[in-house]
């Protein structure tokens, strides 16, 4: 089995060392960076399978690193955020981060989150392609196209869209989507809200009046076929 390469970006030497050891124990190759500029340069040259990204970095902060990454790359990003940084966490998700872990965190939990995101990005797609009008999901390539144009979806966005499209007409709560798509038994349900908003911006003609991903008031969301 091919090892995944994970870049850990954090300016705290202790955090980098602990995360590196746990990720290596989980079978990953690990590279380290302590600032945003070095991280972006390393990613451009080496194309890692996943980035663990602290939001509070010297110089270019984690939010800016994530924003620049999403201009050119769909590499999965797991954010590290401090307990009181809810606004930054939501901003990171809006910029395209796939997951987050709140400091102080369990290194074992982080390693499990990393493995979960890598597993999904590596091929937990449905057995067949999913088509709804001009929206198509290519299972094998984990690509989505709208009217023939490829959609720049992150790993979690692809997973969420796949789940909804393969369960048309069914309403799911945010809690259920966290469990089914993220694999979380508990967590911040605003994560789902942010990802739904990002998907609407990419697949809906009028995101403010969505025709495909409907809000079911008092419940959650439902996918309506075109």
UniProtKB/TrEMBL annotation:
Residues 5-118 form the Response regulatory domain. One of its GO terms (cellular component) is cytosol. Pfam families: Response_reg, Trans_reg_C. The modification 4-aspartylphosphate is found at residue 54. Keywords: DNA-binding, Phosphoprotein, Transcription, Transcription regulation, Two-component regulatory system. One of its GO terms (molecular function) is phosphorelay response regulator activity. Residues 126-225 form the OmpR/PhoB-type domain. It comes from the Bacteria. SMART domains: REC, Trans_reg_C. InterPro entries: CheY-like_superfamily, OmpR/PhoB-type_DNA-bd, Sig_transdc_resp-reg_receiver, WalR-like, WH-like_DNA-bd_sf. Residues 126-225 bind DNA. GO terms for biological process: regulation of DNA-templated transcription. PANTHER family: DNA-BINDING DUAL TRANSCRIPTIONAL REGULATOR OMPR, REGULATOR OF RPOS. This is DNA-binding response OmpR family regulator. It comes from Actinophytocola algeriensis.
